[in-house]
Amino acid sequence: MEGIAESGRVRLLGASNVTAAQVRELAELARIPVAFVQNRCYANRGWDRAVRDVCDEHQIVYQAFSLLTANRPVLVNPEVTAIAKRHGRSPAQLVFRFAQQLGMLPLTGTKDPSHMAEDLAAEGFNLDADELAVINTAG
Fold this sequence. Notes:
The chain has 139 residues and is α/β, with parallel strands linked by helices. α1 (20-29) runs parallel beside α2. The chain has helices spanning 20-29, 49-57, 72-75, 78-87, 91-101, 113-120, 129-136; strands at residues 13-16, 34-40, 61-65, 105-106. It has one domain: TIM Barrel, CATH 3.20.20.
């Protein structure tokens, strides 16, 4: 199995806060396949589309962090809040679901059990193409 050292340990390579060009170069030069890229993901920068595209090309998992703190304008956008209301969800859950449906792995951190439960509930519904488009341009 690729990525398994002789000792039986799994060897994974990841990068954080990188550009599309850096991901491409790392993927082409690395002796161990790149498994993960973690980037702060901003709506007003296209949800890191260029980096996500390179990750897709190289079968790299794109992990989006700070989806809520980096995108406060999206969370209060009237169109986004209307979609959230239609689904009976919070705007935060909408952003997490949006990210999942685009192929991102949303990363979140909290010590609050109710926030954890709310974050995990983002998988219980789907957004249609029109709703995805609204969120995509809400930043």
